[in-house]
Design brief:
alpha/beta, PpnN-like_sf, 3-stranded antiparallel beta sheet, EC 3.2.2.4, Rossmann fold, 456 residues, MCP/YpsA-like, 2 domains, LOG_family_nucleotidases
Length: 456
C-alpha cells in the first residue's frame, strides 16, 4: 500500500480528443494484454511529472495501488483514476496540463496499437516506417502545414549541473524572443530548460499558441516524466521512431551537455547527414553549453573526429557561452532550410526528402548478444559506423534507465562491448568522464554502477 497521498478521480476527455472505438477501448481495458500495463506505466509517469528521479520503477513502487480504467460513454471517453498521485491535483481538481497529457497518452497508445502495429504499414521497409512516423505525428496534431519553419529541437541530458540547466533556459529565452517553438524529449534537465526560457521570450513578444512539444517512447517515459511546460506530448512506439520524429519535424537542432542519450542523438543525426544522399541537406546543428562545459564539448568533438572524421565535424558548430549567437546561427540555418524546402518542393512541417537508412530505423534490441556483436571499426562507411555507435549508446541508455535493460543487467551482468582498440580507448575515456560528471544518472541515489564493460 502506498505511503504517499493519493486521490480518486473521474476525468472526461478535453476538447479535441478523438473518440475511441469500442474495439480500441476493449483492447486498452484488457487486463490480460500488454496495453493496459503500458497505459498504466505511461499515465503514472504523467501524473508524477516533476519528480526528480530517473529510476523507471520508482513511481510504481511509490504508488503500487494505482489503477486506471477507460470507459467509452455516449458523451465520449472517460478515465477513472484510482489511488492516483495527489501531486497532480490542486484542491481536488486535476491540473489542466496533466489532464491534457493523460489523454495524449491514451490517444497515442490506442492509435499505435490499432493502426500502426496492426499491419497497416510495412514496418520492415524504410518508406513504411517513415509513413508510420508521419501518421502518428499527424494523429497527435503536431504537424502544422500553414506555419513557416520555426521548430527548434533541443537535445541534452536529464542529469546536468545547475549552471548548465540555467544556460539552457537562457538559450531557450533567445529562441522565444525570435518566435521559435521548442521540441525536446519532454523530460527534466536540458529538456525542460529551453522550454522554460522560451515561455518568457514568447510572453515578452506577446506570442500566443506557442508549442512546447515533448516526444518520448514507452521505454523511457517512466524515467523521464514529461516536464510541466510540455503542451503537446507524443509517445512513439520505440526509440528509433522517436529519433526519426525529431529529425523529420526539426528545422534546426541544438545539443546541450548530456550523457549517453545525448551522444546517441548526435550519432543518429550524423548517421543521417553523412549519407551521400543527404550531402546537400542544410539542417543546422549546434552544440552549445556554458564556459564550464567547454572541455565536455572538446571531448565529444575529439571522439567524433576520431571515429567519423572531419567531414562529420563539418556538419555541426560548437558555440560556448553565447546564447544569442546560438539563436542567430540557428535562425540563419532555418532560413536555408526554408529555401531548400521551397526549391525542393518539400513540406515545411515534415522533411520527406531526408534519406534515413534502414539501419537507423530498425528497432535495436539491446540484448547482451546484440551489444557484443556491434561492429565498431573504422573500415565501415562513416554513416554505418555512426549507426553502430548509435546502437552502442542506445544500449547503455537502456541499461541505465529502461526497466527491461536494468533487469537484464541485474540478471546477466554488464553488457560486453568490443571493437577497434583506438576507438575503445577513446570510448572508455568518454564514458568515464560521463560517470565522473554525474551524467549517467541523477545525483542523490546510490553510486552509479556501469552497465557495460569494454573489451579492448
Amino acid at each position: 500500500m502506498s505511503t504517499y497521498e493519493t486521490v480518486n478521480a473521474k476525468l472526461h476527455a478535453l476538447g479535441g480528443m478523438d473518440i475511441l472505438s469500442r474495439n480500441e477501448v476493449g483492447r486498452l481495458r484488457d487486463a490480460s494484454g500488454n496495453l493496459l500495463a503500458l497505459l498504466k506505466r505511461c499515465a503514472l509517469a504523467v501524473l508524477t511529472s516533476g519528480v526528480e528521479s530517473d529510476d523507471p520503477r520508482a513511481a510504481a513502487e511509490r504508488y503500487p495501488d494505482f489503477e486506471i480504467r477507460i470507459e467509452q460513454q455516449d458523451r465520449g471517453l472517460k478515465l477513472d483514476l484510482i489511488n492516483a498521485p495527489a501531486q497532480a491535483f490542486v484542491d481536488g481538481q486535476i491540473i489542466k496540463g496533466i489532464h491534457e497529457l493523460l489523454f495524449a497518452v491514451v490517444r497515442d497508445i490506442a492509435y499505435v496499437a490499432s493502426d500502426v502495429q496492426s499491419g497497416r504499414f510495412d514496418l520492415t521497409e524504410s518508406n513504411g516506417i517513415t509513413n508510420a512516423v508521419f501518421e502518428i505525428l499527424r494523429n497527435a496534431r503536431i504537424l502544422k502545414p500553414k506555419l513557416d519553419p520555426n521548430l527548434v529541437v533541443c537535445w541534452g541530458g536529464h542529469s546536468i549541473a545547475r549552471h548548465e540547466y540555467s544556460y539552457t533556459k537562457t538559450v531557450g529565452y533567445q529562441f522565444g524572443l525570435r518566435g521559435f517553438d521548442i521540441c525536446t524529449g519532454c523530460g527534466p534537465g536540458a529538456m525542460k530548460g529551453p522550454m522554460k526560457g522560451a515561455t518568457i521570450g514568447h510572453a515578452k513578444q506577446r506570442i500566443k499558441n506557442s508549442r512546447y512539444i515533448g516526444i518520448t517512447e514507452p521505454g523511457i517515459i517512466a524515467a523521464e516524466s514529461p516536464n510541466p511546460i510540455v503542451n503537446h506530448l507524443v509517445i512513439m512506439p520505440d526509440i528509433e521512431k522517436r529519433l526519426e520524429a525529431f529529425v523529420r519535424c526539426a528545422h534546426g537542432i541544438v545539443v546541450f551537455p548530456g550523457g549517453v542519450g545525448t551522444a546517441e542523438e548526435i550519432l543518429y543525426l550524423l548517421g543521417i547527414l553523412l549519407h551521400e544522399e543527404n550531402r546537400e541537406e542544410p539542417l543546422p546543428m549546434v552544440l552549445t553549453g556554458p564556459t564550464e562545459s567547454k572541455a565536455y564539448f572538446e571531448q565529444i568533438d575529439a571522439f567524433l573526429k576520431l571515429c567519423l572524421g572531419e567531414t562529420a565535424a563539418s556538419r555541426y558548430h560548437i558555440i560556448v557561452n553565447d546564447p544569442a549567437m546560438v539563436a542567430k546561427r540557428v535562425d540563419q540555418g532555418i532560413q536555408k532550410v526554408r529555401h531548400h524546402r521551397i526549391t525542393g518542393r518539400d513540406a515545411f512541417f515534415y522533411n520527406w526528402s531526408l534519406k534515413i537508412d534502414e539501419s537507423l530505423q530498425r528497432p535495436f534490441a539491446p540484448t547482451h548478444e546484440n551489444m557484443r556483436s556491434l561492429r565498431i571499426h573504422r573500415d565501415l562507411p562513416k554513416h554505418e559506423l555512426a549507426s553502430e555507435l548509435r546502437r552502442l549508446f542506445s544500449g547503455i541508455v537502456a541499461g541505465n534507465v529502461k526497466e527491461e535493460g536494468i533487469r537484464a543487467i541485474e540478471k546477466y551482468g554488464p553488457f560486453e562491448i568490443q571493437g577497434e582498440p583506438e576507438i575503445m580507448q577513446a570510448l572508455d575515456a568518454l564514458l568515464a568522464s560521463f560517470v565522473a560528471q554525474h551524467r549517467m544518472k541523477l545525483p542523490g541515489g546510490s553510486a552509479y554502477q556501469p552497465c557495460y564493460r569494454l573489451i579492448k
